[in-house]
Predict the structure.
Amino acid sequence: MNLARYCLTSAAPDPGKTALELVGAGGALLETWSYGSLTRAVLSVAAGLRATDLSPGDRILLRIGHSSDFPLAFFGAIAGGFVPIPTSSQLTASEADAILADSGARIVLHDGHTVLPNAGSATLLGPEALVELKQAEPGDFAETHADDPAFLVYTSGTSGTPKGVLHAQRAASARRPMYSGWYGIGASDRLLHAGAFNWTYTLGAGLMDPWANGATSVVYDGPRDPDLWPDLMTDTRATLFAAVPSLYRRILKYGAVTPASFPDLRHGLTAGEALPASLYREWRERTGRELYEALGMSEISTYLSSSPSVPVKPGSPGKPQEGRKVSILSELDDTPVPVSGTETGLLAVHRDEPGLMLGYWNRAEETAAAFRGDWFLTGDRARTDEDGYFWYEGRADDLMNAFGYRVAPEEVERVLAADPQVQEVAVTAVPAREGVSLITAFVVPALPGQLDADRLAAHAAENLAEYKRPKVYKVLEQLPRTPSGKVRRSVLREGH
């Protein structure tokens, strides 16, 4: 099985049918790719990469911004039998350095605009090379197997160091339960995704799944003002719209929406953050449309959701998708036996789940530690109700959720602590209002009571992607700690 072949050919779409539309402000059509032209371009990139000195399974770091070159490079690498590493264009050079060093990528494929790592022994292939790759004579899809590596994504780890999550070729077909269990998608649909190409949420929900169903993917490239989305949904004739909850909130705040808005839209899709019940109800009241939530993570993608066939219970992400084995394990001991009834515990997915990662890249011990018996621990706490709906009860660790991105506080703290005016620092996400939390830095200054927050923010901007940077800085005389010296982040969250 080859992931790229599955996505582009499994629905046997008409080669002339539109697979991808890239639209700009006002819904202006910037690029159109038919299934035929898209498949040819992907296979051209695959052939061009095979003509280099790469070996099957070699990693390719993608440093490409929001353009059609990104999916061509991503799916082209997989089609060629290589392992792409999608990364955010927001990463700083040092962040990209860390991923390149950890992954051992042989090639850095870039667009000439995105910040590059220190390549070291890796080969840099820039815009000219991208053009040549797309013009290569198309070959065929690599004969990879279901359990062969397909792509590698990096997510924040509990140590503060991003860790690679390696997915298999089977990851695409493992998404089938989402088709009816979340989307309610068919070949006639036009799915507009609000995210950038380089986000795994967009790669999966915005590209893989629409294409696997012979649908049309619509991706926006232009200003990100929240008031433009209602018109954009109308102009693009979107039947499905996917975004994070915070964007839905901003659309309701800044956009003029009524039940008459976006007449082609059947319903919205949301993931990446918990969907507050109040936000769901306001969206339903103002638009007359349903909003279906899914819960997932980089290691599995989504596995709980509501859908046209699973009615929404406001505040719950829904039920396990068909065929998913999901359970709750005890927080009190290490038994691998699911708890009974509605007890709160650790949310877990069975190791037989085909969408589950192959493992953490070069981290065998961490991979093993993520399992309890036959169950993969998601790091989330949850409970079930009498109807089989799951209810999210927060993270079992301290990872923060910043507008859909998982961010380790230790990573941010390490950067801030390097500023000489900082004696100690602790970072956590502090609720600002319902459904919205802001990354907040609690700083003990080196000189009591003296902190130049602007200077510290500038230091953060040089070393952290925008979504990782604290939005608030607070000065403390000392950090609250346990008797053993561990910072009590819960006290910081609750007390400030």
Observations:
- The CA atoms of residues 55 and 340 lie 49 Å apart.
- The first helix runs from residue 3 to 9.
